[in-house]
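Example record

The entry below shows one chain as it appears in the dataset: sequence first, then structure tokens.
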Amino acid sequence: MENEKEGFPITALREIKILQLLKHDNIVDLIEICRTKPTQYNRSKGSIYLVFEFCAHDLAGLLSNATVKFTLGEIKKTMLQLLEGLFYIHRNKILHRDMKAANILITKNGVLKLADFGLARAFSYTKTGQANRYTNRVVTLWYRPPELLLGDRDYGPPIDLWGAGCIMTEMWTRSPIMQGHTEQQQAYINQSTMRIYNARGLAWRRKI
């Protein structure tokens, strides 16, 4: 990341601070922060590099590879690790705010690492128990929950859990299940998909 004209980006500072705080088996580990010296070749601006632990795969890449097959046990293990990582960051009052398969890394030993905290931020609640107001222009469109699409700015951990649910379903379908091109279309697709799954759930319960 290059230094901006008016200083180091606040979003980058926030990401570094959060990554330094979080230490968990299912959170990607920030090993080191490196800086290059300002020279005539970089317009007298140094660059900052974040050095992370090596992860062999990302979940989106694995899902797009037709030769890679996930067993039910592997899906369960993946989701367990993802939810453990989310539980940890939420317990530490951090929202990820960009849950998607591309931000889920997997080591050669099958350990899941939640990555890319560029949109992450600390959260808190007011004295009335309501979440504070944050921007709703977060989360990649296909994984964005209905409340953000409707303009809600008082949100908390549930927005990450919506993304986790999308990722879990994607492990069976092999591609994102709700692919809108605009916020309006995405809201409609979300609503239609929820109706379908609710109907299937009702039919399943009736059989029981």
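Notes for this example: The CA atoms of residues 127 and 133 lie 13 Å apart. DSSP finds six helices and seven strands in the chain.
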